[in-house]
Amino acid sequence: MVRVGILGASGYGGAELLRLLKAHPGVELVGFSSRKHEGRPLSAAWPQLWDERPFASQEEVLERADVLFLALPNGLAMGMVPEALKAGKRVIDLSGDYRLPPDVYEAWYGIPHQSPELYREAVYGLPELHREELRGARLVANPGCYVTAATLALAPLAAMGALRGAMVVGLSGVSGAGREGEGTFFAEVNENLKPYKAGGTHRHIPEMERNLGRLLAQGKPARTHGEVREVRLSFTPHLVPMTRGILVTAQAEVAGDWSQKALEELYRGFYASEPFVRVLAGLPETKGTYASNRVDVKPVYEERTGRILVFAALDNLVKGMAGQAVQNLNLMLGLPEDTALPKEGVWP
């Protein structure tokens, strides 16, 4: 049994981590922290979870755990990770602190990086691209929901060298904004649909471009710190009045001649051995992946215009965050990759 702990367990991603790790047969959850709820029972933040233990301090969790999940706001993990690694801990960081080169991170996040020397050690935590690197990793940069959906939607085209660029439209449930996100009060989101961070300003754009650029340069599998080719991507996110779920529509600019048959053969071959990616006959929908660690993908060749459209749906709190972190944990520990992770969704 490996001892695991969560720092930042009062956010939505932290709650999903708690739910998944409490049912994981290979780990012992030895502590969870929240500065807001420290000393209070878990039910104060999450009445759906049954655990008599209170929220501990960060120091207590750091001391007890062998593997740490950092479900903290951007900018906080980079100050904690050096100490944790020095103490012999292994870390899965759910923030953006180690996903990008430090100079790119600082330009898009506006936060000076406190431990840039560790970026070269961090493995990018998208198993479908970096599975072998994740085995035995000490530091994992866990990607988020939009990036996971967009990357997996376009990865087969990039890996074969056909992708030239893309326009991606993303729609997200309100939980994607976090528990204290601005503009997420019921009166503001109910009966309302709105774009945000349009015009190439969303901070996940360089991460999407880097992922696809790795595939263009290296094919599959790709190495986190290997060669990257330039690719430009337009991304516009939208907030949808639902609790959870991500749906992206990617319009790809590609080289070569295509047909629906060739496109489906490419995608089915690329994802044939992936335990959490399903290539559909029909179109994806968010409720089809609700509470699962699965991504549903559908490529479509639009014969009238010659364009390629790719649709992808996932649960932003599971495969888009906490479930992917547990998938990375399983790989780090040499456990079956699907341990404690649901492939099937629920239909409430």
UniProtKB/TrEMBL annotation:
<dbReference type="Pfam" id="PF22698">
    <property type="entry name" value="Semialdhyde_dhC_1"/>
</dbReference>
<comment type="function">
    <text>Catalyzes the NADPH-dependent reduction of N-acetyl-5-glutamyl phosphate to yield N-acetyl-L-glutamate 5-semialdehyde.</text>
</comment>
<comment type="pathway">
    <text>Amino-acid biosynthesis; L-arginine biosynthesis; N(2)-acetyl-L-ornithine from L-glutamate: step 3/4.</text>
</comment>
<dbReference type="InterPro" id="IPR058924">
    <property type="entry name" value="AGPR_dimerisation_dom"/>
</dbReference>
<dbReference type="InterPro" id="IPR023013">
    <property type="entry name" value="AGPR_AS"/>
</dbReference>
<keyword id="KW-0560">Oxidoreductase</keyword>
<keyword id="KW-0028">Amino-acid biosynthesis</keyword>
<feature type="active site">
    <location>
        <position position="145"/>
    </location>
</feature>
<protein>
    <recommendedName>
        <fullName>N-acetyl-gamma-glutamyl-phosphate reductase</fullName>
        <ecNumber>1.2.1.38</ecNumber>
    </recommendedName>
</protein>
<comment type="similarity">
    <text>Belongs to the NAGSA dehydrogenase family. Type 1 subfamily.</text>
</comment>
<dbReference type="InterPro" id="IPR050085">
    <property type="entry name" value="AGPR"/>
</dbReference>
<dbReference type="InterPro" id="IPR000534">
    <property type="entry name" value="Semialdehyde_DH_NAD-bd"/>
</dbReference>
<dbReference type="InterPro" id="IPR036291">
    <property type="entry name" value="NAD(P)-bd_dom_sf"/>
</dbReference>
<keyword id="KW-0521">NADP</keyword>
<dbReference type="Pfam" id="PF01118">
    <property type="entry name" value="Semialdhyde_dh"/>
</dbReference>
<dbReference type="InterPro" id="IPR000706">
    <property type="entry name" value="AGPR_type-1"/>
</dbReference>
<keyword id="KW-0963">Cytoplasm</keyword>
<feature type="domain" description="Semialdehyde dehydrogenase NAD-binding">
    <location>
        <begin position="3"/>
        <end position="137"/>
    </location>
</feature>
<keyword id="KW-0055">Arginine biosynthesis</keyword>
